[in-house]
Amino acid sequence: MSHSIGSFLLPYIILHLIGENLGQDVLDKEIKAFISYTNQYDANEINPSSDVLHQIGQIIFTLIDFLLLFSSLNTIDPNEQAKELNQRKRQPPPPPPQQQQKQSNQDPLNIQDGTWNNLGIIRIRDYIRLLHTDLSLARIAFKYDHYTRAYRHFEMYSSTEQQQINISHNSEFLLKLFHRLNDQDSAYGIIGIRNMIPKQLDNPRTDIYEEILSYELTGQIDEAIVAYENVLEMNELNQTNIHLYLGYLNNLLTQQQFQHTIDQSTGIIVQYPTWINMLNPLRIEAAWKLSKWNLLEKFCSYQNDNLYLNHNEQINENSKMNILHDLHVSKQFEEYVGKILCQAKKQNRDEFYSELRLALNSLMGPISAASMEVGSYQRGYDYLAKLHLLKDLEYYVLKNIFHDENSIMIIDNDDNIDDIWSQRHALLPPNSKYIEPSLALRRTLLLLDDINHTKQHAVLEIGECWLHSARIARAQNNSLAAIGSLMKANQSHPIEVAIERAQWMWDKGEKDRAIMSLKQKKIELLDSRTNNDGNHNENRLQVSTDLKAQVWLLLARYSEQNSPHEAVFEMYKQAQEAAPHWEETHFYLAQFYDTLLSSCIESDPTSSNSTSTTTTNNFLSSNGLSLENKLRMMEYIRLAVNTYCRSLKYGCEFIYQSLTRLLTMWLDFASDLAPFIKPIPTTTTSRKQQSLTVAAINLPDAAQIKQYGQAKLTEITREVSSWTTRIPPYLFLAAFPYMVSRICHSEDMTSKALNSIITQVFAAFPQQTLWMMINLYGSSNSMRRDRCIAIWNEASNIEPGLHNFVVEATILIKQLDTLCMHTGTYGQNKISLSAQFKSFKRSYTTCPILIPIQSQMQVCLPPPPVRFSLSTTSAHVQQQHQQIMNGDLPSETSVKLTAMANKQGPLGRTTAKRTAQVGSTTTGTNKIPQKTYYDARHQPFPDAVVTIQSFQDTIEVLSSLQRPKKIVIIGSDGQSYPFLCKSQDDLRVDSRCLDFCHLFNKCLKKNSETRRRQLNIRTYAVYPINERCGLIEWLPNLCTFRSLVTKFYRQRSSNFSEVSNREIKVYGNSKDKTKETRYNDFLKLLAFHQPAVFHQYFFAAYPDPNRWYISRMNFVRSTAVMSMIGYIMGLGDRHCENILIDTCTGETVHVDFNCLFNKGLTFEIPEKVPFRLTHNIVDGMGTLGVEGVFRKTCEIILHLIRDERELLVSVLKTFIYDPLVEWKSATREEVANMKKQQIEGGEVVNMKAQTHVRNILERVRGYCTDELTGKRVVLPLSVEGQVDHLIQQATSNELLCQMFIGWAAYL
User: Fold this and answer.
1) Which residues fall within 8 angstroms of residue 1240, CB to CB, at 6 or more apart?
2) Are 284 and 335 contacting, i.e. CB atoms less than 8 angstroms apart?
3) Is the backbone of residue 1014 left (phi > 0), alpha (psi -120 to 50) or beta?
4) Beta strand pairing status for 1038-1040 and 1030-1033?
5) Residue (of 835, 843, 834, 783) closest to 812 by Cα position
6) What is the DSSP letter of 850?
7) 1189-1203 and 1247-1261 are packed helices; what angle lies between their axes, rounded to 10 degrees?
8) What is the C-alpha separation between 246 and 1052, in angstroms, rounded?
9) What is the DSSP letter of 398?
10) What residues form DSSP beta bridges with 1031?
């Protein structure tokens, strides 16, 4: 029998033997023997060199996975089990005993008919529980580098014990595990829990070791080294503290203190020669990273076959020192690399290949074991990264040392080693664990050739490697490594080093030193430019021109709070002159103008956010500002808008900040000025707006403000209109919802300019913008509807082909409205489209309309330019700089710009007609300037869009209160696309809230911390047709949180539903109960639903350990993200049906955003908790609960919200100018005024929404309310304090007991 057949049959044989209760001992003996051998291996401190151990371990794990999978797939619901027993009673009597025995022997587990008897399943489950009575499996998996499996086995073990006991008793194991998983967030959680436990006064040394451990796990290497040195000073060198020295030397290597590592290791080996086996690999690694070939040859010459530790020198297994030793990955691979480099240096080809084969073979065991299961890539990634390092080493040595290009088989001979390294760094994860070894090897290889190291190219490459290492060290707060790397790179890259050093000082809080160092470097650069005016040494000057711009720009940004604004303006001007084509130089200057404007607004003693209707606080009508200040502020607005426009001309990296901000400033300034130009009738305004109008008219300087303001507004409007001809129209899609919300602007000139932009964007992309504007067409506001129709008609004049498209679109909108509002017959769960909607047009093949799924609606913006990378050579920088300064661009760019000028019209639209997408043609005549960043060939949307082919005839009617309808659209690709037609609900709130989430996703991708954790909000498409109904994209693979939880409760108890309903009726809260009674009844109801069961869902749904780990991490992180976003936006009604779980990824998906802006506090039974964090939600997060990943993610998200508050508020401004907040929550006067504005025209300013936006800003700043006492905190809380406060409120039984019973706080 072949090995593959045996591997296939073995799980079924074991399953059969356990089911018959005949072979359980067989597997037990094998597992115990393997555990015993592993423990012996631990005691002897010998690394496994054979592949057999990894493969044996993997076979055992595969068998356990098979048992777990069968146990989860053959779960019998207790209710189904009762039905089965009743059916068996009605069946004929059983056959004779002999025949019955024969049948049972043939199929004892009922495998043939696809079912299992209860006894077989119970035996399998009992055996699985028996395997997890201790941590043996988890420790074996950890030993053989399967860390996700080790964590899963630990969680299965902890599910049978008390979590508090597990954390306190096994925190060391968890810390080691999280270190290997690179999960710092969970490590922080363990450390936090340990800090809550009283310190062991009888063993003070334990506290020191735990402190060192926490430093290492959280990346605080500097502090760990200091702690090590303190401990070493108190303890003499002897056999019992070898692991202490190993930890200390490993940290020195991490800090790139290579020479210090060699000196310390050599000194210890002189005193204790028997320790050479453990210390010599550290010396070898330090020597090859220093390129000290003599020392490397000396260290590699030691023989290791006769030097081992004596048994008396073993370290106690329970010693804290053993923890420190286990935290460090074996240095065996670095030792192999050193020996390979040593042979390459001696040009010994045979020994080179011999050492290379040994290194490759050492990696094959773990890789082959990982390949035996699902998720092998993630498990074996560390070893694959080492394989890549060996391949790069082999390629370089063969090509540059042995000059044998014929032996290079995998990589083409034409490939440049610099390009290969650059591609490697681009693909590696942003983690020093993978990047730093590659950089170290690259530096050493460049110095391997005696001739090559004198070349200027090699010097520059080595300097860039050190710069990259410095950036990584700075990002991880590794001060010693950062400074050491910068000192090594200073000779070849002085300007880059000055920039990086200043950033390092700024991050440390030494802001004055950072500014002074940049000023000093600026003086040096100016002096060198003066001295080199008459010289021919142009190379250095040309290469550093862009770097000079970086110096000017960084100095200007750092000096904003430390220098007069005139000096800051001069610095920004110098940066713009040095790099006029950079988006950053213009963007940060615009932000500085914006900051000056905000400071002027805040200086107004009469300013009050409670009376403002714009972001500029209606400063023109203020009595607390002098005329001079008002004129200055208007100039700041003009300069800021102008500079934002220039930044978008050269790139779109900051488009979500710059575009939304310039539109907000422009439109709000026009709104502030409107009462001076054309007083608004008092009959159509609220009291606040009336007071502003009266104040504007009665100001003594009203005439001057009007004259100067009109001139500035005209300049701004002309600048914006002119700027729109220089950029492609798809940029405006980033802020299109906000532009549409201001469609009825009160100032005539501004309104015409804004509507003109909307018209041209619609003409360029009608398929996408149609769905963003359908709520305008169906609006009850007559002016909004008329403006929408006028824009569509004007676009049809620009593009004649759009006329038929608009006609078909209006027909579709009306038909969808009719379908949504159809009530139907009670109890009817299906509707025939052809029978009940005979006039419904089902085919749209003649004039195709885009299916509005989210993937087709998201605009794809061009990537930001890459100016500096590890592949950037001095010659390349020089050539690029010279071309830019001379106004000449590379030939490829010239071709792109020529094509752009020939093909694009006023907004960069293509003028060639396309038949694939109706309405995408234009006939513009204006040309785009030759100097522009954008490529005419960039496609913001896919060319092959999926359009509506037809509608499926059968419509499913759901059973919820509004009875929404599930329709299915057949696309032009033949696929089905389901949507939900929802009525009696204003989906504009959902649409705007998802716009906010979509924009926040952009922030999550730009932030390094959130991007590293892959944080994201799961969004979907929502398109309101009018104020009453709309379309919602149907997402597959979603289950409600209630259905998943109750499933496992029913498995635990056959009559769960019956008893649960009875308990809810008895103990369900009521408004006539006292708080004490509610609390006691809730505890009784909660006790019935204990213990929590949601952790079982992840075990059952994801049998593979890697998928289990990733899915549960997705659940915890997505829950944390939406908890913070929901709290900031006041999102309520988070009952168990509004929180869905993606069964494929484990992510949480929230639906129904109608209860927004803390509307839950106005319910008859108010919602007191900030978000849903019931005991089952916490149970799904695993052993750590809210500590670790959840808490850390919440803190990161809240930090990001505070940093990006201006950008996020710009999205929330759409609520102010689009009357989305329910009028029933407003006063009668406000409702009447808004209705008058709808009838008589003008922009509706929803004052209730303005109040809600201000409340959101208060929460962002850290102001909270203690719902238990009803008191508001006096001072704003820090991010950490606010998160801790919210978690305590969300998990408080005193607050949960006051929730409405339908919210199901007991689940």
Assistant:
1) 681, 683, 684
2) yes
3) left
4) unpaired
5) 843
6) B
7) 120
8) 50
9) I
10) 981, 1023
Distance of alpha carbon 279 from alpha carbon 262, whole angstroms: 9
d(CA 410, CA 402): 17
Q: Are 912 and 877 in contact (CB under 8 A)?
A: no
Query: Which secondary structure element, helix H or strand E, spans residue 537, and what is its range?
Result: none
What would the DSSP string read from start to end of 747-777? SHHHHHHHHHHHHHHHHH-HHHHHHHHHHHH
Distance CA 1082, CA 1169 (A): 15
Structure tokens at 601: 């607004």
CB-based contact 706:676 (threshold 8 Å): yes
DSSP state of 1079: H
pTM: 0.81
Q: Judging by beta carbons within 10 Å of its beta carbon (0-12, 13-18, 19+), is residue 314 exposed, middle or buried?
A: middle
Residue 334 and residue 284 in contact, taking contact as beta carbons nearer than 8 Å? yes
Q: How far is Cα 216 from Cα 218, in angstroms, rounded to an integer?
A: 6
For 194, the token pair is 């340990």
Strand order of the sheet with strand 1038-1040? 1038-1040, 1139-1142, 1148-1150
H-type alpha helices, 107-203 = 118-131, 136-143, 147-158, 163-169, 171-180, 184-196
Of 1211, 1110, 46, 17, give the one whose Cα is nearest residue 664.
Answer: 1211
The percent helix, strand, coil of the chain (3-state, each to 5) is 65, 5, 30
Q: Which residues pair with 1032 in a beta bridge?
A: 980, 1022
Q: What is the mean pLDDT of each run of 10 residues along the chain (1307 residues)?
A: 68 72 69 67 44 70 78 57 48 50 42 52 73 78 84 85 59 82 86 70 55 77 84 73 82 88 88 83 90 88 51 40 42 85 88 88 79 71 86 85 67 60 75 84 83 68 88 82 87 85 86 87 71 48 69 89 86 88 90 87 61 61 80 90 91 87 89 78 50 57 86 92 88 88 87 92 91 86 88 89 87 87 78 81 76 88 64 37 36 34 33 35 35 74 86 84 85 90 84 87 87 90 88 91 88 69 68 78 80 88 88 95 92 90 93 85 86 93 90 94 81 61 46 49 61 83 84 86 92 88 86
Strand partners, 1024: 1030
The Cα-based distances of 441 to 423, 438, 446, 617 in angstroms read: 15, 5, 9, 58
CA 229 to chain CA centroid, Å, is: 38
CA 235 to chain centre: 45
Grouping H, G, I as helix, E, B as strand and the rest as coil, residue 961 is coil
Cα(831)–Cα(951) distance, integer angstroms: 13
What's the rounded Cα separation, in Å, for the pair 724 and 719? 9
Q: Cis bond leading into 1091, ω under 30°?
A: yes
Closest CA to 31 of 143, 137, 155: 137
Distance CA 671, CA 690 (A): 14
d(C-alpha 855, C-alpha 860), whole Å: 10
For residue 906, the model assigns a pLDDT of 31
What phi, psi does 211 have (nearest 5°)? -65, -45
**DSSP assignment letter at 1277:** P
Give the integer Cα–Cα distance in Å for 448 and 844. 68
Q: Which tokens belong to 678?
A: 């054309």
Quote the CA–CA distance of 688 and 609 in Å, as a whole number: 12
Q: What is the pLDDT of residue 1170?
A: 92
Tell me what pLDDT residue 168 has: 66
Written in H, E and C, the secondary structure of 817-839 is HHHHHCCCCCCCCEEEHHHHCCC
Q: Tokens 């080693």 correspond to what residue?
A: 417
Q: Return all residues near 1186 (Cβ < 8 A) that are at least 6 apart.
A: 1173, 1178, 1287, 1291
Q: In this structure, are strands 976-982 and 965-971 parallel, antiparallel, or unpaired?
A: antiparallel
Distance CA 296, CA 287 (A): 5
